Amino acid sequence: MDQKSLESSLQGLGLSKIVYFDSAGSTNDIVADWARAGEEGLCLAVADEQRKGRGRSGRRWITPPGSALAFSLLLPEISLSSSGHLGRVAGLASLAVCHALEKHYSLSPKIKWPNDVLLDGRKFCGVLPEAHWSGESLQALILGIGINIAPTSVPQKKYLNFPATCLEDSLGKPVKRLRVLRQVLKELSALIDRLQSDAFAQAWESRLAFLGQDVLLSDRVGNSFQGRLLGLNPEGQLRLRLADNQTRLFQSGEIRLRPVIDRQDK
Ligand code: BTN
User: Fold this and answer.
1) I need a surface site. Which of 8, 20, 207, 258 has the fewest CB within 10 A?
2) Consecutive 10-residue runs of the chain (266 residues): their mean pLDDT?
3) Residue 142, ligand 1, Cβ within 6 A
4) What's the predicted TM-score (pTM) here?
5) CB 148 less than 6 A from any atom of ligand 1
6) In Å, how far are 109, 163, 204, 205, 219 from 216, measured between CA atoms?
């Protein structure tokens, strides 16, 4: 992968800026700098290797060279204007990854809410959405996406907090990173236009992992909740029916989700 092959693979997708890095700290930080410098439109930074890749909740995200897709998008103005649907931005990338893999590889990925993507119950894709505010005003929305492609991209067990896999292991054959990137970005730009639609919410909800099953949620301050995963509300919050039969809503960002069965197995 290099700047030239990246640009030629992504032709016709309407990206305003495409920059390739052999090695970067975190592509989310690069794109955040672009936002501060006033870049506009749908902008993309791709790194072959990340030295300081970040996951959600302050975790590390490891991107060894030549093995994965690590990229960040600065979303265009239109997504800011639908900021009433900010919760849905969390589902944008994971849904695009699902659509691409269903269409082109006949796979059936699931979304571990809010935005991990699983194949056969193992995580192969993580999404780090970041919103930049100036007071009350939303300045920029960034979506960072990491996809494990080759087996060498799957971190060692000691670094995992959930079982992991990669696309090539699921398919049993090599795949071209640039092809996957184009397929995902094509789906993503189609979904941006449909962010506010009922169809978007339904498509996200229908791909939820553990739908209708009992799950455990734990928040950052150590509270945990067990209940039946009912689905999503229109803002993309998770609906859980607790033991007292009350339905409770959860915001993305703060939560760790596990199937109850997972815990009993340990
Ligand atoms: C998670 O599962 O916790 C989210 C992982 C997000 C990783 C991607 S890789 C590209 C972008 N740059 C980063 O530093 N993180 C995101």
Assistant:
1) 8
2) 97 97 97 92 97 91 96 80 68 96 98 93 94 81 96 88 94 97 97 90 95 88 89 90 93 64 43
3) no
4) 0.92
5) no
6) 21, 16, 20, 18, 10
